[in-house]
Design goal:
Elements lengths: L2 E3 L9 E3 L2 E3 L3 E3 L8 H9 L5 E2 L3 E2 H5 L3 H6 L9 E6 L3 H12 L5 E5 L5 H4 L11 H15 L3 E7 L9 H10 L4 E5 L15 H8 L4 E4 L5 H10 L4 E4 L8 H10 L10 H19 L1 H16 L5 H10 L3 H16 L8 H11 L17
Length: about 375
């Protein structure tokens, strides 16, 4: 099993994962309660070369937990697609990979980077990466079970700067059958407002021959281009930067193809894509279950325009999809008519990058609107 980047006329796009050709170097990260089928499909439409389902528990897979099985469901039109799993026992991971293969994913990834306390408390996620020998054994078990399906792992730099072991872990992954390694270039102890330390990318690539995918605070095309062209990352995995922003994939691909960056689309284009995304969400989950997800989506998509700090109050109070659509329509018209006091978009983006879900609830960002 191998993960090979194709050099076609020095094009930075095409990749080959085992027998599978992937159209570009851009990967949508697995995100809990985010990367459902509608989110993946929209991201793929705009140029994500590989997407992932939401993370699942290896134990849940083996026990055939209902909700776990739902997360593993995807359509053929979504391929290539990967599944990320949490696990810390070789036998359980072996059995889980055997089960997951029945769904025919193209990649199965082991999460060794999640720093969430309740995950670490169960010796899962980033806690696994603190024992390099054991991590290698887990990858080996997955590789034996995976057959012709690629296996990968997601890592962090280390527990903290005095305990960085990412090079050793990446080497262990390679030695035990991983096709590629994704690295979130922060330590386990770091917060989101800590800048990723991409200086370790070169150190890792000197020691391993399999591709290294860079992850961490990729919020605009320039971040991705810097990692790919300047630092030599073999690919980038985009997580929070894709929230309400599937356009980031299209923009990066255009730049890699030698075209001009078209910039972020206007409000009319964003609203059109948002409505498409909401329609997919409603069809997938039904209106009742989709409502809260829809509210998050609307705020994510709208964060690039004035009036977002006014919109949040209206969206959170909405009771059904019809009301949400009415709010979107009126808000779009207000943005077009320049009906809002100018928000500090840079500050809003900074808040978003640090808090993601609730960045707009900070009192200093709630502003008064002016009516048209």
């Amino acid at each position: 099993m191998y993960f090979k980047w194709l050099n076609l006329n020095n094009n930075l796009n095409f990749v080959k994962l085992g027998k599978l050709e992937i159209p570009n170097r851009l990967i949508l990260a697995p995100m809990a309660e985010v990367t459902d089928a509608p989110f993946r499909k929209i991201s793929k439409k705009f140029g994500a070369g590989l997407t992932f389902t939401q993370m699942v528990s290896a134990e849940g897979v083996v026990n055939q937990n209902f909700y776990t099985s739902r997360y593993l469901s995807f359509g053929r039109d979504e391929k290539p697609i990967g599944v990320q799993i949490l696990g810390n026992e070789t036998e359980t991971l072996y059995k889980a990979v055997k089960e997951i293969k029945k769904f025919s994913p193209d990649v199965i990834d082991l999460n060794c980077g999640c720093p969430v306390p309740h995950v670490r408390a169960n010796n899962l996620g980033s806690s696994v990466s603190e024992n390099t020998k054991h991590l290698g054994e887990l990858i080996a078990a997955m590789y034996r079970a995976a057959g012709d399906t690629a296996v990968s792992v997601k890592l962090r730099l280390g527990s903290c700067y005095s305990k960085i072991n990412v090079v050793e872990n990446a080497k262990a992954a390679e030695d035990n059958g991983a096709s590629f390694v994704t690295v979130h270039f922060r330590n386990i102890s770091d917060r989101y407002d800590t800048k990723p330390d991409f200086s370790f990318l070169e150190k890792i690539k000197k020691e391993v021959s399999i591709p290294i995918i860079a992850n961490g605070s990729i919020f605009n095309p320039q971040d991705a281009i810097y990692l790919l062209k300047e630092l030599g990352a073999d690919g980038v995995m985009i997580a929070r930067g894709a929230l309400g922003n599937p356009f980031i994939f299209e923009r990066i691909n255009k730049i890699l193809n030698g075209e001009k960056d078209p910039g972020h689309p206007d409000i009319l284009t964003v609203t059109k894509v948002l409505k498409e995304h909401l329609n997919l969400l409603k069809r997938e989950f039904g209106e009742f279950r989709a409502l809260d997800r829809a509210k998050k989506l609307i705020l994510w998509y709208s964060r690039f325009f004035n009036g977002i700090s006014v919109l949040v109050t209206r969206i959170l109070r909405a009771r059904d999809f019809d009301e949400l659509l009415e709010i979107i329509e009126s808000h779009t018209i207000s943005v077009l008519n320049d009906s809002f006091i100018s928000d500090d978009i840079a500050e809003i983006q900074s808040k978003f990058e640090k808090k993601v879900l609730f960045w707009l609830l900070d009192s200093e960002l709630i502003v008064q609107s002016k009516t048209a």
